[in-house]
Each structure stands twice: as structure tokens, then as C-alpha cells.
Amino acid sequence: MPVIAAAAGTGEQARTVLAAGKGSLTLPGCGPVVVNAGQSGYYRTLYAPAAFAPLAGRFATLAPIDQIGLLADTGARFRRPAARVELPRPGRGHAAGRRTPVWARVAIGYDDLLAMYGGDKAGSARLASHAIARLAPVMAQVGWTASPGEATSTATLRERLIATLSHLGDPATIAEARRRYRAMDSDPQAVPGALRKTILAVVAEHADGATWNDLHAAARAEKSPMVKDAMYILLASPRDPALAARALALALTEEPGATNGAAMIDAVSRLHPDLAVDFTLANLEAVNARVDASSRSRYVPTLADGSVLPATADKLRAYAEAHIAPQARRDAETAIAAIGDRIKVRRERLPEIDAWLARHAVKPPAANAGACGSALGCVLPMRATMRSPAPCRHRGAGPPFVRPPSPPGARPSTAPAASRCPVP
Q: Given this model, what pLDDT does residue 82 score?
């Protein structure tokens, strides 16, 4: 396996090829070593603590591509203690400049951590407090309105930040999305085309009964088939379990259409996996009528993505034994194993993350402090991914239409510095 490495901040690289999981190289310059410099290698790096600490301390000096790589490497270390990384302040040239992809990766990391907490409201609130304090200043700089000639990466970051802040329950983001939604009929600029899906997704995620009814009426009245389909998916996106249950019931009617019915159940599973699994098993014949026969062995297991309940794993096992041929049970077995893995990760890692958050409680920013409230820069607990062995699905800004297939995870290499896990 080819490996490229560089001393942080030097730009000078050295190359070698691992044979039988071993290899060595000599680096020009002096400083912490970045493995997979330039991030062209198809692997993740597991740094020894003594090698990781100085590299993390110089995070802000790394090239953006290597900052993203280090965030991803550290995210893959979910079986190791949470790491401390200094992030660049979201000042000029950072949030809206060449560091834009880095902040997008940070936002995704917070989303993954939030998913780890699942139904733990207290833990989710602690994480949200920390994450909102870090991301809200970046969002303030990026803004809701695109600037003339802005980079595509800035527009992408805007959508990512709005989505993540919505998932975190940021009151300011939710209020602004609702304001724009209410004004969209009278003000064409309130919901620009580039943000329409993102804003509607925030409104749907935090909908109350009246808003859900409004969205339902809009879906029924919509003439464009594509927009109509998207509106029915939005109806299945609320955090409110009662509204999610209403969406599930609607999914089995003729109103949304057979294809949309299956997609609506899938959309409910994004925030309510156990509810979606229970509903599907209780209405299996009706649901199967809306799922292509070739996809049925995968459909129910994928609904459990995100579940942390042993009872759901037991239900999947019983379902597979009763309805799936032995040679076609791989997806079910993977889903069952993933639930067990998430339970283990929550048990072993959440206390460490909670302790990290307690040590780094966020204080209101001073008038002369950096955008994250510190003259020294932002500090982030590295994300811990829970969706092993399959890569995690990020919950995007817009409604999900088709769940992409998850490639199987790769077994770690025995190499001392790197593992052969595929890069997402």
C-alpha cells in the first residue's frame, strides 16, 4: 500500500510502500508527521497518542485537505478516547474562504455525535450547547443570503450549517427558517431557490400540528410531480413522534402513491428508527406491496439504522428468520451487528464525551474574543462514528429521496500507522 507523509507545515513529502503491513520512510524537515499528506490514499490513519497530540496542537497550520483528513481519521477512532483538536477561528479566510470545507466537515462531525446520543435528551442538550456556540458564529459570517460571485463551497457550507444547527435545535436557525417560510408567498426573496429544500426541511423537522397540516395541504395541492413527491417526504421528517406516526399512517394510504409510501416510512426512520421498524412489522403485507420484491430483504433492516435498542435487534432477527432466505440475510445480520456496536459505543464513549464537554463548557463570547468565544481558537471533541460496519449516513439538509446502498466496511490493517478502511 503506497503511503505519503509530510512534516506538518513543511510541504515536503516522503513516500514509501507498505509490504506485509510494514514500511518506513525518512521525512525532510522537522515537526509532527501527517500520514496520507494530501489525502490521496484510500485508508484511514490511526496515530499513536504521542504522535497525535502535537499534530492536533498544530491543526490550524495544516493545509485544509489535511485538516479534513485529520478530522476523518480521528472520527474513525471511536474506540479510542475522545481527542482534543484546536480549530481555526472562523475569521476572514477561514469560514468563508479556503477553510470552508473544513467547517463543513466539523458540522458533519457534530451531526454524527448528536446521532450517537440518540434519545438521551440531557446529553444531546450538552452537546448542542457546545456545538451551537462553535457553529453559530460561522453561520453568522456566511449568512442566509448568497453574495454575488460567492464560491460554490460557501453555498454548500451554508446549507450544511443550517441543517446541522437545525438538528442541534438552535433557536435562531429554526426561527429564521420559520420566518422565511411564512413570508415566502409575499416575498420571493425570502426562500431563494438554492435554499428552498433546506428551509423547508428545517420547518418540517420542527413542525407542530398546524405546520404539518399546512405542509400536508401544500403537498395535496402541488401540481409538479417532483415537488409533490418531495413534500410528502417532508411530512415524514418531524421530530415530534406523534407527527411521525401520522406520516406513517398516511404512507399506507393511496394519497402519496406506492413509491412515496415506502420512501415516507424510510424518512421517518431517520429520526425514529424503532417506530418505523415496529410500524413496518405490524403492517408488513401492506408495506411489502409498496417495496420492490428485489429490495425487501434490505428494506426492513435499513429502517433500523440508528437504533440503539436490543429489542429492535431481536425483532430484526425474528423477521429475518421468518421472511428472508438464509443466503439473503446479510443486510439483516449487518443491521443487527450495527445495533450491538452502537450500544457498545454509547456505553464506552458517551461518558468520555460528556466529561470532555464538561471540561470545555462554553462561555458567552467576550466582545473582543474570537468568533468562537476564545482568543486561542475553537476546541472540538473529535466525532465518534456509530455506524459500523457500514459508513454512517449523514443527515442532509434536504429530504431523503433514495437511501444509497452502504458499502461494506473494510477490516483494519495490521500496519502500525494506517488502517485499510475506505475513505467515505
A: 43
DSSP state of 11: -
Strand locations in 18-142 (E): 33-35, 44-45, 84-87
Question: pLDDT at position 78, please?
Answer: 55
Long-range contacts of 5-12 (CB under 8 A, 24+ apart): 5/33, 5/34, 5/35, 5/36, 5/37, 6/33, 6/34, 6/37, 6/38, 7/31, 7/32, 7/33, 7/34, 8/32, 8/33, 8/34, 8/55, 8/58, 8/61, 8/62, 9/58, 9/61, 9/62
Helix, strand or coil for residue 14? strand
Amino acid identity at 324: I
Whole-number Å distance between alpha carbons of 18 and 40: 15
CA-to-CA separations, 351 to 80, 113, 123, 133, 381, in angstroms, rounded:
12, 13, 10, 21, 13
Query: Model-level pTM?
Result: 0.74
Chunked into runs of 10 residues, the chain (424 residues) has average pLDDT values of 81 81 79 84 81 80 81 65 39 50 88 86 92 93 92 93 97 97 92 94 98 97 94 97 98 92 96 97 96 93 94 97 95 95 86 84 50 34 33 36 36 34 30
| Sign, CA torsion 104/105/107/108 | positive
SS3 402: coil
8 A C-beta contact, residue 112 and residue 160 = no
Owner of C-alpha cell 429490495:
295
Q: Which three cell numbers stand for residue 259?
A: 413509491
* Closest CA relative to residue 158, chosen from 79, 95, 247, 77: 95
- b/e sequence 106-134, b meaning 16+ C-beta within 10 Å: bbbbbbbbbbbbbeeeebbebbbebbbbb
